[in-house]
Design a protein that fits this description.
The structure is a single chain. This protein is an alpha/beta fold and 189 residues long. Helix content is 34%, strand content 29%.
Length: 189
Amino acid sequence: MYKVWYIAGAVLLLFGGCVGYTELPEPVKILRGIPADARSIAIHVLPATPGSVRNLETSADLSITLARSIREALARRKPDWRIEIREGQTPPVKTDLALRSEFLEVDGGSTGMRFWIGFNAGATQSIVQVSILDGAGQELAASRISHSTMCPTGLCTDSNEKMLQRNFEGLADEIAQFVIDPTEYAKRK
């Protein structure tokens, strides 16, 4: 009987890492499709809304951190695209597309709950509003994307900042998929 418990424990430790999942709190809004000849995008970084960041002790600019993660995720999927990061409410840039992302909520979660309880307790969660604009500044598509990162088995010793890094990687990948083909993204979600 003890062998079964040892085997089960080993399996949980090996395969019980952190996982992420994405939800769309509202339906994706698609006004027009992404132009097939698009080869460049500017990522406009907007500051987080006041009071939207909880349970974090980082001094890093979260908006810039997410923008860099989005740039990396887009570059993996579209290596031939020119991808720029622009801070603040800058005027339209001479690119085929623009992406505006704004944090609505960032919650680092609880390390204690992740360690002792697991499942979705203490999960790290980020909610962003993203809009894709054409070169003239007209909105093509928009969505609110919520991404959570959790430790299903407990015993997670990662800090909130480490969990947030994982969360941003998953969120950036979701945003990249949305940018490339909003219609297909909406169908899969």
